[in-house]
Design goal:
The structure holds two protein chains of two kinds. The longest helix of chain A is centred in the middle third of the chain and has 39 residues, at 176-214. Helices cover 73% and strands 0% of the residues of chain A. By secondary structure, chain A is mostly helical. Chain B is mainly α. Helices cover 68% and strands 2% of the residues of chain B. Chain B has 16 helices and two strands. Chain B has helices spanning 3-15, 24-34, 36-59, 111-146, 154-171, 175-198, 206-209, 218-230, 234-244, 249-258, 262-275, 279-286, 291-327, 339-346, 355-382, 384-389; strands spanning 151-153, 214-217. In chain B, strands 1-2 form a two-stranded antiparallel sheet. Chain B starts with a helix and ends with a helix. Classes of the chains: A mainly alpha, B mainly alpha.
């Protein structure tokens, strides 16, 4: 166990090192320079550009820039090129905004997809199963931004749910329950949208896992000895079907950053995805690289956690 | 008829069912035909394919039949099926069908013509991107699965590093130093090839032995590369690269292809690891067949089923990714229509002209859905576990 943790830790550090090199190279070797973002701006005189490139070490060779960048990152001194604020502080603020969206979306996904998947596995090939299957294909295939606009039209005209930003503008010093409800209303649409794709994929996965377990011999034995169907489904089958999903707790970690770019920019939600999008538009390399690095760390941490969980949950696995 | 003869015919009848009655294709179509959704998906896919190809011919050229970029400022935001106002239009501005099948957008351009033009973009993005990713995936997965146990020696790694840095330096205009590096590599390759025949008799000098130490196995190397690629958040990476590179449809295809080959690599490697141990591969090796012929002629047809399924679903997700990028304003430069940027322009008029949002949105939905249904149907048919049940 300890040797497994140590080995995978070293392996992950090496992977992270290469990820940092590759992302740095992708950004810096691509054609175009940050100084070309706004060439018509009269403040961008050649002297200014030179001063900036000296300030941000852009005139040094690439490997020196690389060392400078990651030195700054680990000492927490990285500053955005756009507004000279600390990148880590910016990311942390935006992360706190994205977090409720992510938590609510994940809760919706996990609470809805399990009942749907289990039910369609139990009533296999029935009307319910077919409808659920078709609906989940529909949800996988619908472009998120189109679905967002359909929902906006429907919800705004019928229920007057707010769709822009995190809170009503100028809400200021309203009472606490009022602010809370306001927040929840604003969160409703983006989190539901973030959850739709997840529900579709996860419920299909739950269904196939359940089907696989239900086809096994011990389920037939349990049925044959006359146990009530509820006990067979929920006690014998479900417990074993749940095994792979324990590991998925680790794999949802990277979802904190990726995949929310479009939804956050439609709903003007000041979260991580939107910050990354704005950074890309402004060629704010430190922000882009830091977001990339943080998400790589999250992916690696997620796989590590899921490996550990599998080790704990499934006694058959000995690494 | 004597007794003896009947027993013989009876025996014959007992053995007859053992030979396959149907060919593999017939069985495939039989199973596939039972899945109505998959058939629907295939039909829509064929229809979409035809539309995209005819659309390419109808909307391109100097005098296209449907002109997607013809601006009619008098005819802004006309709803679908509306007749053009013939008094205001020049004779060559009148739409070909004499009415606007899908309405017009905020510049009075015919949405039907733009949708036709966009179909070709979606089709090529889907197929080229997935083609690239499948090629890389099969190549990497095949090598990792088949040659996985071979070890790379330190001199190979150094050579690759030198080659890459030499090419990089030439690209970065440090031509003299880069060319020197490349020449060095070339010299080493020539030297290695020349000494390879002799080295069996004569041991290499001791300082050279250091370069022949086994460094890392091929399998480990490729799987670590896959791990590294999986660390990048894919949509964010695509967005970054597309935003940095000059806007062009080919960049999008290449970038989507280069960031989505990891799944295929894993499938192919897993299949190859199990196929490699089987008897027909041992037989092929015993016959002295070359490695690449074994890989592509003997093993690949057995490993191709999961690749086909993931490619079909990959096309769907590539179309979605392209639409998302166009929606955010990246990728195909503006005068050229794609479904994503029709929708992205249309969202500003969502209450006045809902067809500008709904027509491209529903079209993308239907096409992506058809690919997903077809892919899932394919998965069911190609899955041998399910085949036994039928």
């Amino acid at each position: 166990m300890v040797s497994f943790i140590g080995r995978s830790f070293v392996q992950k550090i090496i992977t992270l090192f290469f990820v940092s090199i590759v992302s740095f190279l992708i950004i810096h070797l691509a054609p175009g320079k940050p100084s070309q973002v706004d060439p018509m701006n009269p403040k961008f005189t050649p002297e200014m550009v030179e001063r900036f490139s000296k300030e941000f070490h852009l005139d040094k060779p690439l490997y020196v820039q690389y060392v400078y960048f990651y030195q700054d990152l680990f000492t927490g001194k990285t500053a955005s090129w756009k507004d000279n604020q600390s990148v880590l502080k910016k990311i942390w603020e935006r992360f706190l905004n994205s977090l409720p969206l992510f938590i609510v979306g994940t809760l919706i996904t996990w609470t809805l997809s399990f009942p749907v998947g289990i039910r369609s596995a139990i009533f296999r090939e029935g009307v319910y199963d077919r409808t659920a299957t078709f609906l989940s294909y529909l949800l996988i295939s619908i472009p998120g931004f189109f679905f967002a606009y359909v929902l906006i039209i429907f919800v705004v005209t019928r229920f007057h749910v707010p769709v822009i930003g995190m809170e009503t503008f100028g809400i200021g010093d309203a009472s606490l329950p009022y602010i809370l409800m306001d927040r929840i209303w604003h969160m409703l649409l983006p989190s539901v949208l973030g959850a739709t794709g997840g529900i579709a994929v996860l419920s299909r996965y739950v269904r196939s896992q359940m089907l696989e377990v239900e086809g096994q011999d011990y389920i037939r034995t349990a049925r044959a000895k006359g146990l009530p169907p509820e006990q067979v489904h929920y006690k014998h089958a479900l417990r074993n079907a749940l095994l792979p999903f324990v590991t998925m707790f680790g794999l949802i970690l990277p979802g904190l950053i990726g995949g929310s770019v479009i939804i956050e920019s439609i709903f003007s939600w000041p979260g991580m995805g939107r910050m990354a999008y704005e950074a890309i538009l402004a060629r704010d390399y430190p922000v882009i690289l830091t977001v990339n690095f943080v998400s790589a760390v999250l992916v690696l941490a997620g796989t590590f956690i899921s490996d550990l969980l599998y080790l704990i949950v499934d006694p058959r696995i000995r690494l | 008829m004597n007794l003896n003869e009947t027993t013989v015919t009876k025996d014959f009848h007992v053995e007859a069912p053992l030979t396959p009655k149907r060919t593999r294709w017939e069985e495939f179509w039989l199973l596939f035909g039972q899945n109505r959704l998959a058939i629907l998906g295939l039909l829509i896919f064929i229809l979409f394919f035809c539309c995209a190809i005819t659309g390419l011919f109808l909307t391109s050229g100097s005098k296209p039949i449907f002109d997607p970029s013809l601006v009619r400022l008098e005819e802004k935001l006309r709803p679908p099926f509306s007749k053009p106002n013939l008094d205001l239009l020049e004779p060559d501005q009148v739409p070909t069908l004499n009415f606007y099948l899908m309405g017009t957008d905020d510049l009075g351009r015919d949405v039907f013509a733009r949708m036709l033009q966009g179909a070709w973009v979606s089709l090529t993005v889907g197929f080229v991107a997935v083609g690239i990713s499948v090629l890389i995936g099969i190549f990497m997965g095949g090598i990792a699965g088949y040659f996985g146990q071979h070890y790379l020696k330190i001199d190979h790694i150094l050579l690759t590093l030198l080659l890459v840095s030499g090419t990089g330096l030439i690209i970065l205009d440090v031509i003299r130093f880069g060319a020197a590096l490349l020449l060095l590599c070339l010299a080493y390759i020539v030297y290695a090839v020349l000494t390879r025949h002799r080295s069996k008799k004569k041991a290499s000098p001791s300082w050279g032995a250091m370069f022949h130490i086994n460094a890392v196995s091929v399998d480990t190397l490729i799987m670590r590369i896959v791990d590294i690629m999986l660390c990048f958040p894919s949509f964010f990476l695509i967005l970054t690269v597309v935003a940095i590179l000059p806007a062009s449809i080919y960049n999008i295809m290449i970038v989507i292809g280069l960031t989505s080959w990891m799944g295929t690599t894993r499938f192919v490697r897993a299949e190859f690891l199990s196929l490699r141990e089987q008897d027909f591969v041992a037989a092929a090796k015993a016959l002295g067949i070359g490695n690449f012929r074994i890989i592509f002629r003997h093993m690949m047809p057995n490993a191709v089923a999961p690749v086909l399924v993931s490619a079909t679903i990959g096309i769907a997700s590539a179309i979605l990714t392209e639409a998302g990028l166009s929606f955010l304003g990246f990728g195909v430069p503006p005068p050229h229509a794609t479904w994503g940027n029709i929708l992205s322009n249309g969202k500003n008029f969502i209450f006045d002209a809902p067809w500008l949002t709904f027509i491209p949105g529903i079209t993308i939905l239907i096409v992506v859905l058809s690919f997903n249904l077809f892919g899932e149907g394919l998965r069911d048919v190609l899955n041998p576990k399910l085949r036994e049940r039928h």
